[in-house]
């Protein structure tokens, strides 16, 4: 059984030292401009090389996050970033966007790919799809329980990585649009403003009054006690969240993980003082998903952190010895030579500057004790030989100390040598981001409905396609199936993956137009069937569109975060693109339920609302083991038919009645203005 990797976050050079000195096996850090923590102290091509040299010298791997969605005009810069990462000799790239994965495969195919948690991989099918696409590791969604993690890990054929400590996003990672649509700062672009930490109150509140409770704020996850079980399950790496936190926090979490991995006790109280939101939760991993998972950062928490700082800094004051070395000291009448060798075959030699003197007693034990004193370095002597030629010979301690220091410094320098990954010379096509999408004379309309009862049948004739959740397939009359696309769930926790596979098998021969994929894992389940790409794929650029088209997508819905000026270049040959022109944007998709702050599922009507600090009401709907939180103000673009450079338009009906859906469809067909509050979304202003 392989030893599970402890993977630590790095957001600055001081955090890097804290993570490494306290015992992390690997670190992950962001490359400036293309990672999901734009506020962290991210690394440039120059500083990344220094970080990799520092880590590799100490036997620590470096994973570089290039895990944002990217737009067409950014692809050239992203290609340069991939080259810089490859030239640094880093050990892996963490990515969300298929464009990033494509660039890595074409520019530096020897550079391993890790699928970011932003890819929302939470099923065996998702991990298997990553394996087929050449990924070496899947970073699994934080919402999984132990049995789900174990099942995926044992059968997917690639490494898995699991979060064990740190902040929990309320939404499934990669499926949150709240920060983008409420404040223009996209979580998928690395600029999340953390709106879920603000008041969102599930309590019944009269109209016009603000919410005060924090019913979208989860406690930090901490399942460090589970490390031995995760290791036994075959998980390759356990990840600590927190690139925006402090060196003290990183050191506390790494130290706790190292102890737990060895079956030793750790100071949980000190870990909580490093950072918590009124304690920790293990709700997802243990399967206890309830109101106890929620919490906020209190003044008492902050004060406890302040008082604990001196103790926390002691955790990384001295470097942990971790690199095994063999030492061989050879002494003869005319001098001494020390050879130090690591397990990778690197070797360094130092010569003594003092003449050996005859010794009355055997000096070997004392010489070995002197050579063992490697504290303050990353080296751990595991075999020391002392050979005397014509001795015994005595050497002064100062001579031994200087030989040891010189040899270890030389060995460290050799270990820090940058070993770049080979580049292919491939270049991004110069015209990939050129605006080339032809504007159709008239755009057909596709409409998605939450269930068949919401569909106004009199409007069906005017639609190119109906889109309905696959569990609604039996409700669709046979004569409408040829123009009905069945939507697969964006997430399939628990037995829903198995249920979805069964539904695909049943419906495949029933005459439906095809299926809508909303997760990378869906392509694994839909091989050989007509596939259309939906909202959950987060499509923002032409290269990713080409990748999805190669997987079989016949049509692709653009992420509504894409600005109008970035749409024309997303035009893969043979694959039509669409844009949302109406819909209450699903801002969050959650496995934990904000309504659990008030009651259990047994007392729930499967719907509710959250009131924010500005008295706005956000609808919440429950189904298939997850909750969707909707924007109360719908997107509407029906009166601007020429604004978006796509082939078809998409209306997303969720909380509307059948009558409301009919009225909105009529407005869309007439390109009429919308009556009531609406938003243009991000189409004209984009996101940070």
Task: Describe, in plain words, how this protein is organized in 3D.
This protein is an alpha/beta fold. The protein has three domains: 5-168 and 219-267, TIM Barrel (Alpha-Beta Barrel); 323-415, no CATH class; 445-585 and 634-670, Aldolase class I (TIM Barrel). It has 18 helices and 30 strands. The strands form five sheets. The protein has an eight-stranded parallel barrel, surrounded by seven helices. The radius of gyration is 29 Å and the shape is elongated.
Structural class: alpha/beta
Distance between the termini: 44 Å
CATH architecture tag of the largest domain: Alpha-Beta Barrel
Largest sheet: 8 strands, parallel, barrel
Shape: elongated
Strand content: 15-25%
**Helix content estimate:** 25-40%
Topology, number of strands:
30
Summarize model confidence as the mean pLDDT: 96
Stretches where pLDDT is under 50 for at least 5 consecutive residues are none
């Amino acid at each position: 059984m392989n030893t599970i990797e402890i993977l630590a976050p790095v957001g600055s050079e001081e955090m890097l030292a804290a993570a490494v000195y306290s015992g992390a096996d690997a670190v992950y850090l962001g490359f400036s401009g293309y990672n999901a923590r734009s506020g962290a102290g991210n690394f440039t091509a120059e500083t990344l090389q220094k970080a990799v040299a520092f880590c590799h010298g100490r036997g620590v791997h470096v994973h570089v996050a290039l895990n944002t969605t990217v737009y067409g005009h950014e692809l050239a810069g992203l290609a340069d970033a991939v080259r810089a990462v490859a030239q640094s000799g880093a050990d892996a790239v963490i990515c969300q966007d298929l464009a990033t994965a494509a660039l890595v495969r074409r520019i530096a195919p020897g550079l391993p790919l890790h699928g970011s948690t932003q890819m929302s991989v939470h099923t065996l099918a998702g991990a298997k799809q990553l394996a087929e696409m050449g990924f070496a590791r899947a970073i699994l969604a934080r919402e999984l329980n132990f049995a789900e993690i174990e099942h995926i890990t044992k059968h997917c054929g690639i490494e898995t990585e699991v979060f064990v400590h740190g902040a929990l996003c309320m939404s499934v990672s990669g499926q949150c649009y709240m920060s983008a649509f409420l404040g223009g700062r996209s979580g998928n672009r690395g600029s999340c403003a953390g709106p879920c930490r603000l008041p969102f109150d599930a309590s019944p509140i009269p109209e016009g009054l603000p919410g005060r409770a924090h019913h979208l704020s989860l406690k930090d996850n901490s399942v460090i006690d589970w490390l031995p079980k995760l290791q036994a399950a075959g998980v390759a790496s356990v990840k600590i969240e927190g690139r925006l936190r402090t060196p003290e926090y990183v050191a506390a979490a790494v130290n706790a993980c190292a102890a737990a991995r060895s079956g030793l006790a750790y100071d949980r109280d000190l870990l909580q003082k490093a950072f918590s939101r009124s304690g920790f939760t293990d709700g997802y991993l243990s399967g206890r998903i309830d109101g106890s998972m929620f919490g906020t950062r209190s003044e008492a928490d902050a004060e406890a952190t302040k008082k604990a700082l001196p103790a926390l800094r002691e955790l990384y004051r001295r470097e942990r010895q971790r690199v095994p070395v063999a030492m061989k000291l050879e002494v003869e009448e005319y001098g001494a030579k020390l050879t130090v060798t690591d397990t990778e075959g690197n070797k360094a030699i130092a010569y003594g500057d003092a003449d050996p003197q005859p010794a009355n007693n055997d000096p070997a034990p004392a010489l070995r004790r002197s050579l063992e004193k490697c504290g303050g370095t990353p080296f751990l002597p595991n075999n020391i030989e002392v050979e005397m030629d014509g001795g015994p010979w005595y050497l002064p301690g100062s001579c031994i100390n200087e030989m040891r220091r010189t040899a270890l410094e030389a060995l460290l320098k050799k270990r820090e040598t940058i070993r770049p990954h080979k580049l292919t010379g491939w270049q991004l096509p110069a015209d990939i981001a050129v605006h080339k999408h032809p504007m159709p004379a008239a755009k057909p309309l596709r409409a998605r409905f939450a269930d068949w009862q919401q569909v106004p049948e009199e409007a069906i004739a005017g639609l190119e396609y109906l889109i309905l959740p696959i569990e609604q397939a039996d409700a669709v009359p046979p004569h409408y199936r040829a123009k009905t696309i069945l939507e697969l769930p964006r997430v399939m926790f628990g037995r829903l993956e198995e249920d979805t596979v069964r539904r695909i098998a049943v419906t495949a021969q029933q005459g439906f137009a095809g299926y809508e994929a909303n997760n990378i894992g869906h392509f694994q389940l839909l091989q050989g069937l007509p596939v259309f790409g939906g909202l959950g794929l987060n499509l923002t650029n032409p290269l990713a569109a080409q990748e999805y088209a190669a997987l079989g997508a016949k049509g692709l819905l653009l992420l509504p975060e894409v600005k109008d000026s970035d749409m024309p270049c997303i035009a893969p040959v043979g694959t039509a693109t669409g844009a949302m022109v109406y819909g209450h944007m699903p801002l969050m998709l959650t496995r934990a339920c904000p309504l659990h702050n008030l009651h259990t599922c047994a007392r729930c009507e499967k719907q509710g609302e959250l009131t924010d600090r500005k008295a706005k009401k956000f609808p919440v709907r429950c189904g298939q083991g997850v909750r969707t939180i909707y924007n109360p103000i719908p997107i509407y673009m029906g009166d601007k038919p020429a604004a978006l450079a796509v082939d078809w338009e998409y209306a997303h009906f969720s909380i509307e009645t059948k009558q409301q859906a009919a009225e909105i469809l009529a407005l869309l067909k007439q390109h009429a203005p919308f009556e009531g509050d609406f938003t243009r979304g991000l189409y004209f202003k984009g996101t940070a």
